[in-house]
Amino acid sequence: MPRKGDYVRDFPDLEVEPGSSRDSGPHRNEWVVVASTATKRNQSSRIVPDRYACSGLAAELAQEWVEYVEAAGLAAGSVQSYRQAIASFCACVDNRFGAAAPDASLEKDEPDLARAVAAWERWLPSNFPEGSTRPSILAGAIRVLIRRRVEHPERPVADAVIALARAGSGVPVGDCGELDEFSRQEKLELVRTAWTAVVALEKRLAGGWELAAAGRHPDHGCWTSIPDLLWGLAHQAITPKDIHDRLPVSTSWPAHLRECIGLPDGPLPRTAKQFLSRWLVAQLWPSTLDLHAFRVLLTDATGRAPEEIGQLTGNDVEFVPNGVRLTLVKKRAQRRYYRSFTDKPVDSVGGVVETEDFRNLPRREPGEIIRRLMGVTERARQRAADPEGKLFVRAVVDVGLRLKFAEWNPEAPPVRFSVWLREHGVTITGKADIRRLRKSTKVEKIAVARGRIHQAADDHHEQTFRGHYAQGTTLRVISAEVINAAQQHWFDHAVQGPTVLAEQPGPTREDTERLHSLGLTDQQADDLMHGQLDMGVTHCSAPYDSPYSPRGELCAVAPLRCLECRNAWILPSQLPQLLLFADHLDRLRQRMAPARFTAVWGQSWTNLHAVLAERTEEEIALAREHIAGSDVSLTLPLAAHVEFDA
User: Fold this and answer.
1) What does the DSSP assignment read for 257-320?
2) CA 127 – CA 324 distance, rounded (Å)
3) Same-domain status, 95 and 125
4) In this model, does residue 294 exceed pLDDT 50?
5) How many domains is the chain built from?
6) What CATH number did the domain enclosing 453 receive?
7) Where is this region: Disordered (predicted)?
């Protein structure tokens, strides 16, 4: 299934030609499909079965191909993929069966085409880079055509081939690397460059029409005068072909014409007249490269997909107070939705932009950007006579020196986004894809929304966000920081165990000041010395502020978890209770599984033995004698005497 952004047009209308006028025996000599490309040009795809030894098999697959294209309305790219799959498979059958290849047919048991398909699918991945999705696409195309033939009631198919059609393909799907978003520095550079390009375009067009207003028809003026040539183009009095035919040879050009094409000195190329015609047209109407700047600005300002921005029409724009309301169309989802944008320059975290770079340029004001777009394309849109009223319209001089005003095609190889970046000296890391700018906006939105996906996925499903946008570097870094913070929080709780005092404090002013210097308040220090904070195994400096219970409630886990709590204070007088608690943990350790004991009591066990290790053997022996010679006992909750392994 194509990813978002792969479709830049609706499925084109197709004109199917089942075959040529020439026949070759029982098989048609040629199968042709004429499809419109993304640039609305007719593109022919043809299969000639007689080029293969297995011409019968090729004709069968070609027949299914033509019918499937007509029924499904496949785009030109998919048409080419099916043609490539048929060509590759038929070549493999020729090599595999040799002299028996002419007998190959989907309705025959011999030669065995099921084994041929399996062998071809095993061979396919070796002809493409590792992880490529192309082998899976080609293998799937052949299986689709075979399934169509199986379902046809009047076209018999061998049993082995039917079983093959019902089974799944063994070709790995491959891995489409997710596009990473632009860094913040790269995004700022893109926006800054785009605004600079828009301002330069407006100045260029204003200067061009000013010169045209001062000119006249070249027949009454001069064919080497720039104002006269611009006047002729602006008033449709001349064409680029006329300029090419009427201009003198390039060797006698005046200096001002030579400077237009950037070659003031030296010999001029043979295509100098074409370059001059394109330069003159660019002084009056925007070119294909010029419109990239507006798409960058609108994608950044609105956060919408680039293909939705490029398809905006005059009817999709409604200016409202302090902003604009846009009607946007997701062609792949066949969904129309509306969004309003206020003209308030804000940055990615919601603050007003007041930097020196953008002080006089409304960085994120969609309404202002669209007004300027409509201003620079107004004359081109009038000449284009586009019934849909697309906003992105440019003027172009084709190879036949014909001046055309047509819908903008940003994917044409000579004028792609990467060319615009190179022309303006913008250096980025990774792939030069405008969709990365959309992803940057999405990442900023989810960061501002503090991870609330439903707010960031406001123009598609949340699952789409998780699949295509949640893998960005920024979100991975943010996620790692959150995880590290959470881990550090619980690690601090684990390592910040009880505070151990080596000497028993007495009720003196010096002892109170010493305890106060350790972080206790005067009241806590006094209560600690008088035994009012004794929780059984340890003392507690804040029994109503326990990390294990709601604030304001008495700790519900004392004394079982005191040895894991940062509020615990251990005095030398509590050594007998610590020894009794150690005996209790020893009994639990013998009864419980090691993994279970470590999970439940591991931290208490570690902290307890760390405390006992600081006591001398004499102190421990005296504590044992005190336990044996008195009625000292360990007071624990009833639940502490019942343990379960699961």
Assistant:
1) HHHHTT--SSPPPTTHHHHHHHHHHHTTS--TTTTHHHHHHHHHHH---HHHHHT-BGGGEEEE
2) 51
3) yes
4) yes
5) 4
6) 1.10.443
7) 1-28
H helix intervals, 498-557: 509-517, 522-529
Answer whether residue 488 is part of any domain: no
How far apart are the C-alpha atoms of 514 and 634, rounded to whole Å? 30
Give the domain range for residue 342. Answer: 292-468
* Positive/negative CA dihedral, 581, 586, 590, 594: positive
Start-to-end Cα distance in the chain: 46
Q: Which residue in the block uniquely carries the two structure tokens 């035994």?
A: 531
Q: Which two tokens stand for residue 171?
A: 């070709």
pLDDT digits (tens, 9 = 90+) for 98-144: 889 999 999 888 888 888 988 898 888 888 888 788 888 898 899 99
Whole-number Å distance between alpha carbons of 607 and 551: 25
- pTM of the predicted model, to two decimals? 0.59
Domain check: are 407 and 464 in the same one? Answer: yes
φ/ψ (deg, to 5) at 592: -95, 155
Neighbouring-strand partners of residue 569: 499, 539
Q: How many CB atoms lie within 10 A of CB 60?
A: 23
CA-CA distance, 580 to 537, in Å (whole number)?
A: 9
Interior angle at CA 590, CA 589 and CA 591, nearest 5 = 95
With CA atoms as reference, report the closest residue to 407 among 433, 438, 435, 385: 385
